[in-house]
């Protein structure tokens, strides 16, 4: 079985990014600063929803890369053991 | 009655029921086909299906209604959590759960923690998903009474039974393919509406200024911080804790398809919310929020104001689509909870596939009737009711589920205590109304976390076999063939003894 550290998992790392950005918005919470008549906090959340989609794209390609390398590594090890 | 709109909506309903009838034979052939469409759904269909499953009446009517009533920041707090649903679930659970080879959420709890946790989770799924029908039925009643000119109660009954019929007949096959149409209608409908609005107001900035001119508080944070934060965390976790969304993940052909479906589904959902933002601004600019009997009807008022009847009819069908596509997935989760997770796995292990799918069909009808009875006199705004369901699921099994995947040391006792404790604390907080609305999971979810971790550490660790299983969740080796075999032979990978 190919064992990788859970802390290096793309999902774990990107989940941390989500939590960090969320923490930034919820801790700062600039509800008395206005941009174009709307509280800045709302615009930060709008930026967040765009970021979520970007992270989804990053995850899909990153995990496909990881799976490919794990598969190659497993095949190489199997071949080595058979020889 | 609005004749043009009514004809379009009725034709649409007949078309959906036709799809249910078309898939009836295939769905009844096995429980794998019924619950996960034989794990054979491609990226294109899967993306629309998963976006449609996530986007309920709440995402359109509820978010817009509450956004106009409580201000644009409330709409964005909703979107901030909701659009994170699919990515966050991908990051934390989707791949691991697929590698577990299970087909329902309680199935996973059985594999990881044992029978007692599985039964408790199945009961929670059935309760939450049955209540989740209420906001969907409320929305369908509002639209039905508006379009057909009939009493709200009759609209709830007719439309509720309508979507129950096709979901019950066709299972996941019908649900996924109706969701393809529903997702497309929903997306196109709301984007066309947004374009009409933007054209009418000469652009987004003019529209925003028009809204602020009518309602100067539209851009303000009007509620306590906790109300926004509670809504956000309930929705961010929704893809992880919602059985109806998690089950979509299993319907995909393979892991790559499941991920890409979720990625494109996120884009569809994002476009839906950006269009919804335009609708909310238009709703505020109309200045009619105070005059409406139900704030959630603002969306319908915007349609009526900006669209000609024929396009409006298509948009109303799109709204119904958003309701039906979520409600059918919830019905499926309820039926799987009772027929498969409780009956098949615990009461009658030898039950035939046909008996299970028949039982599922009966359970769907019963759940639908229960939802209709509550929806006749709905307890709250749509967005708030959906927030309750998300909060309840997060507070009960959100933490045990994620820790079950990521923390080997989590055991049966910890998961059971965390699940039960979180659920009870949530229900007490809702009934006492001590906190701002939807803020309950801010307290209940940490209680679940403390109980899961604390009780796990105070009791014996899980067996070596279970710990190895947790390692296998994270191998990045897709055992698709094994997973598919397990789906068709579910008892083959279950554990027979309670651990």
From TrEMBL, chain A:
The protein's UniProt keywords, in alphabetical order, are:
Membrane, Transmembrane, Transmembrane helix
Q: Where are the transmembrane segments?
A: 12-29, 35-62
Asked whether the keyword Transmembrane helix is assigned, the reply is yes
List the protein's name: Uncharacterized protein
Species annotation: Salinicoccus bachuensis
The record lists the lineage as:
Bacteria, Bacillati, Bacillota, Bacilli, Bacillales
Automatic annotation (TrEMBL), chain B:
The compartments listed are: Cell membrane
Q: What does it catalyze?
A: L-proline(in) + Na(+)(in) = L-proline(out) + Na(+)(out)
How is the protein disposed in the membrane? Multi-pass membrane protein
Q: Which Pfam families match?
A: SSF
* Keyword line: Cell membrane, Ion transport, Membrane, Sodium, Sodium transport, Symport, Transmembrane, Transmembrane helix, Transport
- Similarity section: Belongs to the sodium:solute symporter (SSF) (TC 2.A.21) family.
What is the name of this protein? Sodium:solute symporter
Q: Which organism is it from?
A: Salinicoccus bachuensis
Origin organism lineage = Bacteria, Bacillati, Bacillota, Bacilli, Bacillales
């Amino acid at each position: 079985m190919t064992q990788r550290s859970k802390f290096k998992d793309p999902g774990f790392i990107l989940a941390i990014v989500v939590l960090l950005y969320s923490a930034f918005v919820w801790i700062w919470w600039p509800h008395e600063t206005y941009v174009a008549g709307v509280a800045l906090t709302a615009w930060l959340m709008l930026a967040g929803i765009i970021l979520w989609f970007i992270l989804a794209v990053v995850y899909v390609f990153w995990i496909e890369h990881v799976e490919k390398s794990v598969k190659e590594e497993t095949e190489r090890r199997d071949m080595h053991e058979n020889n | 009655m609005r004749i043009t709109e009514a004809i379009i909506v009725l034709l649409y309903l007949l078309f959906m029921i036709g799809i249910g009838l078309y898939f009836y034979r295939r769905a009844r052939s096995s429980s794998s086909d019924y619950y996960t469409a034989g794990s054979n759904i491609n990226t294109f269909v899967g993306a629309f299906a998963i976006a449609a499953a996530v986007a309920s009446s709440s995402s359109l009517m509820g978010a817009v209604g509450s956004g106009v009533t409580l201000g644009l920041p409330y709409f964005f707090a909703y979107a901030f959590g909701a659009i994170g649903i699919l990515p966050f679930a991908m990051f934390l659970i989707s791949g691991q759960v697929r590698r577990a080879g299970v087909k329902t959420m309680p199935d996973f709890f059985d594999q990881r923690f044992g029978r007692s946790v599985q039964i408790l989770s199945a009961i929670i799924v059935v309760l939450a998903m049955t209540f989740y029908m209420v906001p969907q039925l409320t929305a369908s009643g509002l639209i039905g009474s508006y379009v057909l000119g009939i009493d709200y109660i009759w609209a709830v009954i007719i439309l509720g039974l309508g979507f129950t019929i096709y979901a019950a007949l066709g299972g996941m096959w019908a649900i996924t393919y109706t969701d393809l149409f529903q997702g497309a209608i929903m997306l196109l409908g709301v984007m066309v509406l947004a374009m009409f609005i933007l054209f009418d107001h000469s652009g987004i900035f003019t529209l925003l200024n028009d809204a602020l001119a009518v309602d100067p508080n539209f851009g303000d944070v009007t509620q306590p911080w906790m109300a926004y934060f509670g809504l956000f965390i309930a929705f961010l976790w929704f893809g992880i804790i919602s059985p109806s969304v998690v089950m979509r993940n299993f319907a995909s052909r393979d892991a790559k398809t499941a991920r890409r479906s979720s990625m494109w589904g996120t884009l569809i959902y994002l476009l839906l919310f950006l269009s919804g933002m335009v609708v909310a601004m238009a709703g505020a600019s109309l200045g009619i929020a105070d005059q409406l009997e139900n704030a959630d009807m603002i969306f319908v008022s915007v349609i009526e104001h900006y669209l000609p009847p024929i396009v409006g009819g298509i948009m109303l069908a799109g709204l119904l689509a958003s309701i039906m596509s979520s409600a059918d997935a919830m019905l499926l989760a309820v039926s799987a909870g009772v027929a498969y997770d409780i009956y098949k796995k615990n009461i009658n292990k030898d039950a035939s596939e046909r008996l299970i799918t028949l039982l599922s069909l009966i359970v769907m009808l019963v759940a639908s009737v229960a939802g209709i009875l509550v929806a006749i006199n709905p307890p709250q705004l749509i967005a708030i009711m959906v927030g309750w369901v998300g909060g309840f699921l997060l507070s009960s099994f959100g933490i045990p589920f994620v820790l079950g995947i990521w923390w080997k040391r989590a055991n049966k006792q910890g998961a059971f205590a965390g699940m039960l404790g979180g659920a009870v604390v949530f229900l007490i907080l809702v009934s006492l109304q001590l906190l701002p609305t939807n803020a309950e999971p801010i307290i209940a979810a940490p209680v679940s976390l403390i109980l899961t971790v604390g009780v796990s550490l105070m009791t014996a660790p899980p067996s070596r076999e279970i710990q190895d299983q947790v390692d296998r969740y994270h191998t990045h080796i897709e055992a698709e063939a094994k997973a598919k075999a397990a789906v068709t032979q579910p008892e083959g990978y279950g554990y027979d003894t309670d651990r």
